[in-house]
Here is the input.
Amino acid sequence: MTTLGTPPSSAPIATVPTSKPIAWKIKPIYRWFALGVGIVGVGVLIWWTTWVPGVGKGFVQGNGRVEATEVDVATKLAGRIQEIWFDEGDFVEKGQTLAQMQVTVLNAQRDEAQAISHQAVTSVASAEAQEEARTSEVRAAEAVVLQRESDADVARRRFRRTESLTGEGALSRQDYDDDQARWKGTEAALTSAQAQVSAAKAAVRAAHAAWVGARSGIAAAEATVARVEADIQDSQLTAPRAGRIQYRIAQPGEVLPAGGKVLNLVDLGDVYLTFFLPEMAAGKVAIGNEVRVILDAAPGYVIPATISFVASVAQFTPKTVETASEREKLMFRVKAQFGRDLLAKHRAMVKTGIPGVAWVRLDAHAAWPDKLRTKVPE
Here is the structure.
């Protein structure tokens, strides 16, 4: 008799064999085979960067997307949007007014500055009159000085004669004292007149300083008027360049801070294809190399372009870019610029974000194959 859950003593006990790690040994022949595969792979990579199937040697290709220069139309000052005259997708020309900010406060500031300017003009006229009046006072004081100098000279000579006659006994001591007092009085009057001339000249200088200050007030008021008028003009948001409205970021009635974005504009005259090339290919690309672009959305057309930029530093392959080989981890960013005349002719068809393939001609003497000859819409 056995207890529930206890195996009978006669039941065999199963044993699990212990597993041992299996040592994989690579035979020498396989090592050489792996090395050969690696060499062939590198050779294929080099061949791929210098020869495109159906194109020939001297050309290199890369995948990318169409991009364009974007400009944000933003406010210079904080304020409320009064009106926006364009919607997303509209074409605009350079200098065209796109939106209007409220300028009620700015108009009041301009009127105040103009009133201050008029006051400054009046102050200048008053200062000029004051300076002329002080100048006249100087001339009058100088005339008094001349009179006092004459009186003092006459009194001095009379005193000298009286002094001589008194010494001879011809005049009394009283005459001597009277003439001496008269002479000293005229000298004092002359000194007073000269002081008045100095005071009058100081008043002229003060009046001139007031005139200069009033003139400066006019300049300051005019500068304030000009600044406010510039702010009023900047409240009209204009297109910095021709293009297409891509986003309408704000709406009329919204209050924006200084630098608040209202519209996003795409410059359809500055459109390019950004693509990526591996190191061995990018090292052979020069600014100005001819490019032919075929867009996924229009495979029947071959669009001419020119290399306008090659990155000086490699970067990891972006996730949105398909490469010819997964082994190519570091890539160089390259731009192929489309011609402005071609873009202007077909600007209604220009769109950003479209993927495409760019073929770059590395050898200037190599002829473009038939499949890459320029073919653009009429």
In short: The CA atoms of residues 225 and 334 lie 49 Å apart.
